[in-house]
């Protein structure tokens, strides 16, 4: 992979970079997908929806909404504790279910996936499922492309977040950066589906507040916020594409939290084969281990967060960018 040598030298000297890593080649996943399929065409048999996706999502949605109603008279400290140690896992699971649905991996018809995404969005408290799909598919098709891939931090973030304290604050607030970044960098006009998402979400929020009060609604919002910040589940935001090794831009996680996160940790496998549901991604590695075993990977998302904060050479600039016109990956 071609990349800018100056930044690598700075990293090796223990100094935080002052620019992104710049690649002069296409993203690696399309070419690796072609190589793997040429050797293991049976992987195509893994393509297609997860038949149990609806059931799994419905169970989590109902459990989280029930928990919110159960806490309507609880004190705020209890609500915060339960939100961090329980609700955060449920809402982050639903966020990653929406990620799965953005690839149409619950039903063959895209419209059914969109409706299920709006349903999965309900306990999260803030409408995001429809908009997320628009930007996420671009992240796959144009990984790292400057001004297109909204997964990459802005220059403002990179210049402000330079030490342990600012990186810790950034991690705590990363959901806000993740959500607001596209609004400032590449806003998209809302369509009818965004309106449907917004209307249904506000209706559910209003019902929760009207019948069970602000504490129940606050529990849902807190579950979303703390689960996307300084939390083990949120480690995947950093582990997936933050560059700890200059010649690798996507990293997988092979740890137990994959059981609760739709196996999003299998991230190289996911980018190589976005049409394979999370439940089957481990089989990709089993079938073609020689393509993945030599790549750096993680076993702990909590450790990734710690490394990101404490390593003075790593920060928002630790992402691979490219200016070239990349080929679509999907």
Describe what this molecule looks like in 3D.
The structure is a single chain. The protein is an all-alpha fold and 330 residues long. Helix content is 54%, strand content 2%. The chain is built from 15 helices and 4 strands. It has helices spanning 5-12, 29-39, 53-70, 76-102, 110-121, 129-141, 155-160, 164-172, 174-185, 192-212, 214-227, 235-239, 267-272, 281-287, 301-310; strands spanning 21-22, 252-253, 297-298, 320-321. Strands 1-4 form a two-stranded parallel sheet. Helix 4 packs antiparallel against helix 5 (110-121) and helix 4 packs across helix 11. The chain is globular, with a radius of gyration of 20 Å. It starts with a helix and ends in a 9-residue tail after the last strand. 42% of the residues are buried. The model is unreliable at 1-11 and 326-330 (pLDDT under 50).
